[in-house]
Write a structure and sequence with these properties.
It comes from Triplophysa rosa (Cave loach). Pfam families: PRY, SPRY. The chain is an alpha+beta fold. 36% of the residues lie in helices and 16% in strands. The chain has ten helices and 13 strands. Strands 1-2-13-4-9-10-11 form a seven-stranded antiparallel β-sheet, with no helix packed on it. A six-stranded antiparallel β-sheet has the order 3-12-5-6-7-8, with no helix packed on it. Helix 2 crosses helix 4 and helix 7 runs antiparallel to helix 8. The longest helix has 31 residues.
Length: 410
């Protein structure tokens, strides 16, 4: 009996030992897989930047091999960085112009992507030399390193924390930020979020940045404005609250006054006030079946059922049939979301030509329109909900911070 009991314990132990042995073999194989030249170059670049920027050790995760980027990501980063540094050498413009580098370089970007699709290491030598020459120049200019500033250090702490939690796949954002620190030698609190929004959202480079850093999120929320519904534009089927902050669908069409600005097809309503300059942010609680949020040009037509897309003067995000979340572009851009947002934040920067949408609960970026706005824009809202109201939240109400315990960043 004792022997059978022991046998009962021995067999699983043997199987566990075999599994551990196989796991160790796999780990060894992964470790032995050689790094590409571009991966090694990124590790060396991280080491140089780590030396140049005082009181910042975040890039040690890269040059010590804890954060190894995929080869294609390394190659793309090298070419993009070399292009930016090359522009810096050949122009007298200040660092602030680099917030618009990518929108002006779409042809170059397409060429880069075509090159990367070919695979292999390609001929990266010229791009690497530009970066190496720049790092040598920085060492000679700043033998004692550069103080990045308190705002940058807070941002780096935030990025590192999110990387450790798995919210960021790689630390490329930290490398980019420190390169811009050295280009400008100092980035103030306002420039950091502008830079992040331009590089990570206007170009739709959101593979690893659905997450929004605290500094950026607070800056967005600082642009909060009060938005109210305009009853003169509401479709006759819509019922508005007395404070013009809520709306839902009624059972039948109301008798309403005639207005050129009134929607008579789509179940939509515009805001009372529009924006022709500046930064503006507002939040909306939405239903779970079908809704539409965004902005419309002052000249946009609202009669009938014409498509509400950029060609007709509308820049909107829509949930259709409770499952399809899409930006109403031409053709439509379908957005894969693990969870359909219940609260949506809309951020408009008129001068930058940026209209972004956020999932407030998850504090995550959903989609950005990058346009050149030339006329007044009015927030627009749509719903088919009869029970659940669409609600515009007050400007002074913010979602609690996601940090556990006291927040170090707000």
């Amino acid at each position: 009996m004792m022997k059978e009991c022991l046998q009962f314990l021995i067999e699983p132990a043997k199987k566990l030992k075999l599994r551990l042995k196989e796991t160790r073999k796999k780990v060894k194989l992964v470790k032995k897989e050689p790094l590409t030249e571009s991966q090694l170059f990124i590790m060396e670049l991280a080491r140089e930047l780590n030396r140049l920027c005082q009181r910042s050790d975040i890039l040690a995760h890269i040059w010590m091999g804890e954060d190894i980027w995929p080869p294609h990501a390394c190659r793309e980063f090298i070419v993009e960085t070399a292009n930016i540094l090359g522009m810096k050498e050949n122009t007298e413009k200040s660092v602030e112009v680099y917030a618009d580098v990518y929108p002006e370089k779409r042809d170059w970007k397409a060429h880069l992507l075509s090159m990367l699709e070919q695979g292999g290491e390609y001929d990266m030598g010229p791009f690497k030399r530009v970066i190496m020459d720049w790092t040598r120049d920085q060492r000679s200019r700043h033998p004692n390193g550069v103080w990045p500033g308190e705002a940058v250090l807070i941002m780096l702490d935030d990025v590192e924390l999110q990387w450790k939690r798995g919210h960021l796949s790689h630390l490329d954002s930290a490398v980019e930020l420190l390169i811009y620190v050295l280009l400008g030698e100092h980035l103030d609190k306002e420039f950091i979020p502008r830079l992040w929004l331009a590089q990570k959202q206007r170009t739709q480079k959101i593979g690893c940045t659905g997450y929004i850093p605290h500094t950026v999120w607070n800056w967005i929320c600082d642009a909060s404005v009060e938005v109210t519904l305009d009853p003169e534009t509401a479709n006759p089927v819509l019922l508005l609250s007395e404070d013009h902050k809520r709306m839902h669908c009624g059972l039948e069409r109301r008798e309403v006054s005639s207005s050129l600005r009134r929607f008579d097809g789509w179940w939509c309503c515009s805001a009372s006030n529009g924006f022709s300059s500046g930064r503006h942010y507002w939040e909306v609680e939405v239903g779970d079946r079908d809704w539409r949020l965004g902005v419309a040009k002052e000249s946009a037509l609202c009669k009938g059922y014409r498509p509400l897309n950029p060609q007709s003067g509308y820049f909107t995000l829509r949930l259709e049939r409770g499952t399809e979340l899409k930006a109403v572009t031409v053709p439509a851009t379908y957005i894969r979301q693990a969870l359909i947002p219940q609260r949506v934040g809309i951020y408009l920067d008129f001068e930058e030509g940026q209209l972004s949408f956020y999932d407030i609960k998850r504090r995550a970026h959903i989609y950005t329109y990058s346009e050149r706005f030339t006329e007044k824009l009015y927030p627009v809202f749509g719903t088919v909900e009869m029970v659940r109201q669409l609600v515009i939240r007050p400007a002074d109400v913010r979602e609690p911070c996601l940090c556990k315990g006291p927040c170090l960043f707000c």
